[in-house]
């Protein structure tokens, strides 16, 4: 029974995401989802108490898929300096890909504004941030062990490292800035930060 319910939830979320791409967040209703899936409105409300709950569930699923892709990058068996470089570049590439594939949610974020979205959907946003910090910390710890990086507080350094790229995340999400141009600036920021991270011994 649980697997059937889980499959039904996936069908509902898939349909909702498709409809957002067609109609936008404000014009997509539970009734639209019912028509798209052939699942009764009452059954949809059994799975999701309201539309906000459906929005949150979809965002959590998208967030976890994004995080999974980032985690795969962080597991590559390459030198720490190269791994950190590849990781931060691929985070932006992955985010651009998810924006392209989930235009309805992208429009939702743009309409609310970055801070408004963060406040309304704190759980998925915090999950992404904490997972990215964890992955960056693992790369930095490996670099310290290998004598490539030097720092006293890895978690704090990871947080400062990620915060240095916040402006580029905002530009990618809110301004539709060209990805190649953005990656050029990301590369420059990475090189600047790398200088401070590297061991002098």
From TrEMBL:
Pfam families according to UniProt: TetR_N
HTH tetR-type domain mapped to chain residues: 6-66
Keyword DNA-binding belongs to the record: yes
InterPro entries in the cross-refs: Homeodomain-like_sf, HTH-type_Tx_Regulator, HTH_TetR, Tet_transcr_reg_TetR-rel_C_sf
Segments of the chain annotated as binding DNA: 29-48
Keywords in alphabetical order: DNA-binding
UniProt-recorded Gene Ontology molecular function terms: DNA binding
Protein's name in the database: TetR family transcriptional regulator
UniProt keyword Metal-binding, yes or no: no
Protein origin, superkingdom: Bacteria
